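look at this:
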Amino acid sequence: MSNQKTGNATIAGIACGAGAGAFWGLVFLAPELAGDFTPLQLTAGRYLFYGALSLLLLLPRWRQLGPHVTRREWLALGWLAFTGNTLYFILLSSAVQDGGVALTALVVGFLPVAVTIIGSRDHGAVPLRRLVPSLLLCMAGAICIGWQAVVDPSSGTVEQQLIGLGCAVGALISWTGFAVGNSRWLARLDHVSPHDWNLLTGLVTGAQSLLLLPFALLLDTAHHTDAAWLRLGAISLGVAVLASILGNALWNRMSRLLPLTLAGQMILFETLFALVYAFVWERRLPTPMEAAAFALLVPSVISCIAAHRKPGTVPVSDGDTLHP
C-alpha cells in the first residue's frame, strides 16, 4: 500500500473513531436519564432494540450472508456480545448510578492504555517505546478527569463510590477484552463486512437480552408509571440506534483501517464526548482539573497518530521483537 493510501486510510479511520466516540458518549447519559430503572432493565431495553433492528437489517441479505457464518463465528459472536455489550453496559450503568459520570469516565479513560499495550504485541505493530509519550499523556488526562470524583466526591456515600469504582474497573476489563478480540476477528474475516459483523453481534446480543429480561423485571420492586416506561423505551431505542447501530458500525470500520495500537487511542473520543455531554446536561463549565484533562488527552491522540505516520521507517531491534 502506498504512503498516500495509508495516509487516507488513517484519516478515514480517525474520522470513524471520532464519530463512534461521539455516539458512544451518549451511553454515559442513559443511566442518568433513566436513573429510576436498574442497570439490568437499562441493558435489556437497549439490547432488545439493538437485536430487533439488527434482525430487520439482516433479513434481506441472510441468504448470501448466512452460509459464511460458521459455528466458530457464532461462538466468537457470543463471547464478544457478552463482554462488549451485555456485561459491559450492566457494569457501566451501575458505575454511573453509584459513582457518577466523572468517576466512570476516569476508569474508562484508561481503556486506550490497556488496549494499546496489548495491541503493541501484534505482528507489525509500532514498538511500545514509541507510544510512551502518548500513553503518559493519556494516563495523566484520565487522572485529571476523575480527580475530584475520587478525592472529593460531590455526591453519594463512600460505599457507593467504592461500588461505582469496582463496577467501572469491571467495565474496563470487559470492554478491553472485547476491543482486542473484536479487532482481531475483523482482521481475519474477509467474507463478512464490518457492518454485517456489527449486525450479527447485535443479533446475538438481542438473544442474550431476552434471557436477561425476566431477571430484570423480577428483581425490580419499584413501581413505574406508564410515562416512565415510555421514557425508558425512548432512551433504549435512541441508544440502540445511535450507539449500537451507528457507533458500532463506525468502530468496526475503523478497526479495519487502523492498527490496534492506534485504534486503542480512539476510545479517548468516547471519554471526551461523554464529558462534554455531561457538562451540557449539568449546565456548567468544566472545572480546572477537567479542563486540564482536555489539554492532556488531545495531544495524547495526536502523538499516537504521529508515532504511526511512518511505521516502516524505524527499525525494530532484537529487544523490540513484536509477538503475533
The first helix runs from residue 3 to 24.
